[in-house]
Design goal:
The chain is α/β, with parallel strands linked by helices and about 400 residues long. Helices cover about 50% and strands about 10% of the residues. It has 18 helices and ten strands. Helix 1 links the parallel strand 1 and strand 2. It starts with a strand and ends with a helix.
Length: about 400
């Protein structure tokens, strides 16, 4: 994820070379991986510059005020400085750095009639000849550009919001009324429909998959069915316990062959396994289940092997590479569900793991999650905490009902 935004306030209209000087400071900060927003470098022709600057003023986590003689006469710099000083009082975490350049001093700043009420001279100021030469001190004041680690739930909400926005022509106001939600206040620089989509997405995640049928009904018919289906899949993934799901991604990293994962439940092949995988690899979509076709017969290893190789051939028609070569090189995380544990003993499972070292095999254990190590399954991870079967049943039923409604659109 990108680092927090840094806003650069300046006035460069009257002094020759001032724009170039300000641009050099911006480049120095950007070169240290800061996300710097500067009007004449970032705003393009046709953009609503006023809305864009307001958005930066609201969103920035740090701001640099370049206070030159021109800036102290600028109504717009005064407006930006006022907004940022109020933000600083409300949010002490905001980094606000006055940089005094081209002869401006703390004393002259404190006596500048327009800026006196802001008391900017009481902040830790940087004094420099020009903007470019202030770069080392500004970088020290900003500190390292720490990239944000966005929680999975926030990423999921953003994804759902993007899907809601994709449903063109939908009036989210009606959805808010139906769900008895308060509409969000206006936020400068942001489309109102986008704000409503973000709030609705967070509400969906809070309610979870159990609310899917109600939400699909409220969204209405005739709306992008594929987007609604994707929303249901995300809600299903976040029903799964994160710790249990992570056993799948961790098992894939084992060497020299991926470990198998044992999961209890009653709906593994049709619902639960996909929810586990989506949560395990979130937000990546680079994973696939390989279905095991038909009955296992007497030679289980041979049957599974043939099913895997046929799936690869169907996926890559006309490929010059053999299925085994594709399996060895693909970046896609591949999984195979073994829906009946009695189909395989530890020797057969080990044979499959050796034959397909990059595939994660998932064992369905039924209602309980027994300790399989006593049965000789030495390289099997138990997906704990175990599933609550009642919760699984509710989630699967809600998911199934929601999809039935989507298919009826």
């Amino acid at each position: 994820m990108p680092p927090p935004l840094v806003f650069l306030s300046h006035s460069s209209n009257r002094t020759p070379g001032a724009l170039e000087d300000t641009g050099k400071l911006r480049d120095a900060l950007a070169g240290a991986s800061h996300d710097v927003q500067l009007d004449f470098r970032t705003i393009q022709g046709g953009d609503d510059w006023y809305a864009k600057i307001l958005e930066w003023l609201v969103r920035c986590r740090a701001a640099v005020l370049l206070l030159s003689p021109d800036a102290l006469q600028s109504d717009w710099v005064y407006t930006e400085a006022t907004f940022l000083k109020v933000r600083k009082q409300l949010d002490p975490q905001l980094i606000l750095i006055p940089v005094l350049i081209r002869g401006v001093t703390k004393q002259s700043l404190s006596s500048a009639e327009k800026f006196i009420p802001l008391q900017l001279h009481t902040l830790q100021c940087i004094e420099a000849t020009d903007a470019a030469s202030s770069a080392p001190q500004v970088l020290a004041a900003l500190g390292p550009a720490v990239h944000l680690v966005v929680p999975e739930q926030v990423q999921a909400a953003d994804k759902i919001a993007a899907l809601l926005v994709r449903m063109g022509g939908m009036d989210l106001s009606n959805t808010f009324v139906a769900l008895t939600l308060a509409e969000p206040p206006w936020h400068p620089g942001t489309d109102r429909n986008t704000l409503m989509a973000q709030l609705l997405a967070r509400h969906m995640l809070k309610l979870g998959i159990s609310s899917a049928t109600r939400i699909m009904d409220v969204l209405g018919r005739g709306i992008d069915a594929s987007a609604k289906a994707d929303i249901c899949r995300i809600l299903a993934a976040f029903w799964v316990h994160e710790k249990a799901a992570n056993h799948i991604s961790e098992a894939k990293q084992r060497t020299p062959t991926a470990w198998a994962v044992a999961i209890n439940g009653n709906f593994l092949p049709d619902f639960t396994a996909e929810a586990y995988a989506r949560r395990a690899f979130w937000p990546s979509e680079q994973w696939r289940f390989i279905p095991i076709e038909g009955g296992a017969g007497t030679d289980f290893v041979r049957h599974v092997t043939e099913s895997i190789l046929k799936w690869v051939e169907r996926r890559n028609p006309g490929s010059q590479r053999k299925p085994e070569q594709w399996l060895a090189r693909t970046d896609i995380s591949l999984l195979v569900v073994i829906p009946e544990r009695q189909w395989v003993d530890h020797q057969a499972l080990n044979a499959l793991r050796l034959k397909f070292p990059r595939i994660t095999f998932i064992l369905e254990t039924g209602e309980e999650l027994p300790d399989l190590h006593g049965e000789g399954f030495s390289e099997v991870t138990l997906a704990r905490p175990a599933l609550d079967l009642l919760e699984e049943d509710k989630a699967q039923q809600a998911f199934s009902d929601a999809f039935a409604m989507i298919r009826g659109d």
